Amino acid sequence: MFGVEIVGSISIGPHSIEVLKFESHTLYRRITDGKHVKELLVDPSLELRLVPIYPVFYPRFLTQYILCKFEKPITVAPGNSVSLYIEIPIDAAIYAYNKSSFTILDILPLHTTPKLILYGPLSGGVLARYCIANIRDHLDHRPRLGIAIAKLIIRNNTKSIATVNKILLDASPLRLYYIPNDLRVYTQEITMNIVSSTSAIVSYGQPFVENAKPIDDPHELKPPRIYNRTDMLWGY
């Protein structure tokens, strides 16, 4: 389903999408929970596709950060590391393409009303989209609407036992990859290096699933050319 041109009508979660092509224009219409939500007239030369998107654009873009609280704490011995998979909630978007050019026409929320949280102090902290991340000890390839699977490695570089409850992700270096004509979505490999009793460094590696295609990142979230990490200074 993801990445394929929309022709006619499709359903995704609570949303029904209609794309009707006429000689002079294309009509885009979205109905959510039985209510007529959005209708647009689009140039007929544009190709509309359903694409997974970071969960920071609905109802509007306020922050590029995502704070994922783990469903259960993870305890790591000094000098050791653990590898696991986490489920990150995501949304969907309608992209309009003309060759290599694109724009986002619509955001389709796939979860309940989004919550924002402050990570850190009032002065200098980070506003983030809040979510609960389920943990898996193996890679589950079953399609899950509204979920991106991330491979997470937690390294304890301190001399004390560390218990991890959350991770702060930056949607700019974070990447989303999808299997074309499918609902499966993944991130790249993510490493969390614990460096003290209150701080950690999150780094973003390479994709870990073959044949997955990266999304075209929105202009607000173009990946940085050099800086490719997130500093967690106020606990984990």
TrEMBL record:
Q: What is the superkingdom listed in this entry's lineage?
A: Archaea
Q: Which Pfam families match?
A: DUF432
InterPro entries registered for this protein in UniProt: DUF432 (IPR007366)
User: This chain belongs to which protein, by name?
Assistant: DUF432 domain-containing protein
Q: What is the lineage of its organism?
A: Archaea, Thermoproteota, Thermoprotei, Desulfurococcales, Desulfurococcaceae
